[in-house]
């Protein structure tokens, strides 16, 4: 009986030591992965990396991590225009089935899903935010984007008719969609009249409708769905064979 008690105590102690060692190892791995991701993506700040699943050490032996969560603040995504960038305020990705090399120099996830947020002032940069002639004597420009409710964007358009600026911007509710996995498109549901002046649809849409390409996301993840929210557009992202590092 005494021997059994001693054996149980030893098992408990060893189990506790294993848990401590496992947690220390996962913390070191998360820190290393965060540093490598920062270098790979040329990030301004160190991202959050969280390795899920227990025990971690048995996953290491198998060469595959069950789940890795990554969070990046202020990611500068590409726009397809060379040096032009668009800032993603908050990018979160949940990667599953992450295979890594023996020296941890590379890691590739079987699949990834996540979210991203682009503020309205960032998206506004791509609208025609400068006076544009839409008819003789009539110019218009987009002066603001905001949440229109029910997943719509409210586009505020300021117009000048025969030299007289209208007292209030005209608001247009617009649908926002993802095109080709790398472009956010904003398109007016109904077209406004400026100061009672009816204009050709194609001319009005030159102002109200626009699109923003967002590419170069980490690991090659792509846009999936988008919806207008209180402070910007919320985007769902996804990908397969996503390269975490290396």
Short description:
By secondary structure, this protein is of the alpha+beta class.
Structure in words:
A hairpin with a 6-residue loop joins strand 3 and strand 4 (107-119). The strands form two sheets. Strands 5, 6, 7, 8, 9, 10 and 11 form a seven-stranded antiparallel sheet that branches. This protein has helices at residues 2-41, 56-62, 120-124, 201-208, and strands at 48-52, 64-78, 85-100, 107-119, 132-135, 138-149, 152-161, 164-165, 170-179, 183-188, 210-213, 222-228, 232-245. It has 246 residues and is an alpha+beta fold. It contains four helices and 13 strands. The model has no long low-confidence stretch (mean pLDDT 81). 24% of the residues lie in helices and 48% in strands.
Number of discrete helical segments: 4
Kindly state the number of beta strands: 13
Order of helices and strands: HEHEEEHEEEEEEHEEE
Q: What is Rg?
A: 25 Å
% residues in beta strands: over 45%
Poorly predicted parts: none
Overall geometric form: elongated
Structural class: alpha+beta
Helix content: 10-25%
Mean pLDDT across residues: 81
Report how far the terminal alpha carbons are from each other. 55 Å
For the sheet with most strands, the description reads: 7 strands, antiparallel
């Amino acid at each position: 009986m005494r021997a059994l008690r001693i054996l149980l105590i030893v098992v408990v102690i060893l189990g506790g030591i294993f848990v401590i060692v496992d947690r220390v190892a996962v913390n070191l791995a998360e820190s290393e992965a965060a540093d490598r991701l920062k270098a790979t993506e040329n990030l301004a700040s160190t991202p959050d990396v969280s390795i899920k699943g227990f025990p971690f050490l048995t996953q290491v032996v198998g060469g595959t991590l069950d789940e890795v969560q990554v969070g990046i603040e202020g990611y500068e995504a590409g726009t397809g225009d060379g040096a032009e960038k668009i800032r993603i305020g908050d990018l979160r990705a949940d990667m599953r089935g992450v295979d890594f090399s023996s020296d941890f120099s590379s890691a590739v996830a079987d699949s990834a899903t996540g979210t991203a947020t682009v503020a309205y002032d960032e998206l506004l940069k791509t609208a025609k935010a400068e006076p544009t002639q839409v008819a003789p004597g009539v110019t218009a420009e987009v002066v603001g984007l905001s949440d229109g409710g029910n997943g719509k964007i409210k586009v505020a358009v300021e117009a000048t008719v025969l030299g007289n600026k209208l007292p209030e911007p005209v608001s247009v509710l617009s649908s926002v969609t993802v095109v080709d996995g790398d472009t956010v498109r904003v398109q007016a549901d109904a077209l406004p009249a400026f100061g009672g002046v009816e204009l050709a649809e194609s001319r009005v849409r030159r102002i109200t409708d626009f699109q923003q390409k967002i590419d170069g996301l980490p690991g090659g993840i792509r846009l999936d769905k988008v919806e207008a929210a209180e402070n910007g557009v919320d985007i769902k992202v996804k990908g397969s064979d996503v390269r975490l590092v290396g």
